[in-house]
Specification:
- The chain is globular.
- It has one domain: Glutaredoxin (3-Layer(aba) Sandwich).
- It is 52% helix and 17% strand.
- Helix 4 runs parallel beside helix 6.
- Strand 4 and strand 5 form a beta hairpin.
- With 149 residues, it is of the alpha/beta class.
- Strands 1-3-2-4-5 form a five-stranded mixed β-sheet, sandwiched between helices.
Length: 149
């Protein structure tokens, strides 16, 4: 009995640690745009090479994994990630969707971060990572978001 309780608690803490500190990213563009319309929120669309691109990894570590970004994004953004890994394979359907999305928005480098309005229209584009702080990042997004509301 004690062992089962130990295993159960271990799983609970492991899952709760994963859940905290990570923003709520999705990979489904169509569903996310529909949600953005319903919730009247802008979309942050990230094109990344998660397992090979040094600036992508840094952007995640410094900005997207920060408590400040997590808290801001959960109430103010719809987050979509289109990943282009090299070391592991995505399911074929997801890879095709990501490639189609990259063509649609003319992505030529990683990371590319787009702010979209609720219809999917591009409002802002950033390529690379300039080394700004999470506070500066969220303030910039907030300013852009106010301009489209």
């Amino acid at each position: 009995m004690k062992f089962k309780l130990f295993v159960l608690l271990s799983v609970f803490f492991f899952v709760s640690n994963i859940a905290t500190g990570q923003a709520n990213w999705t990979t489904d563009y169509e569903t996310s745009i529909a949600k953005a319309k319903i919730e009247h929120k802008p979309v942050l669309l990230l094109f990344t090479g998660s397992d090979w691109c040094p600036p992508c990894k840094r952007l995640h570590r410094v900005i997207f994994d920060s408590k400040q970004f997590e808290e801001y994004s959960k109430d103010n953004l719809i987050l979509i990630k289109a990943d282009f890994p090299k070391r592991h394979k995505l399911p074929a359907d997801q890879r095709i969707k990501n490639e189609k999305l990259a063509r649609k928005y003319g992505v030529r480098g990683f990371p590319t971060t787009l702010i979209l309005d609720t219809s999917g229209k591009e409002i802002d584009r950033r390529v690379g990572f300039s080394g700004i702080t999470p506070k500066q990042y969220t303030e910039r997004i907030e300013k852009i978001a106010k301009s489209i509301k």
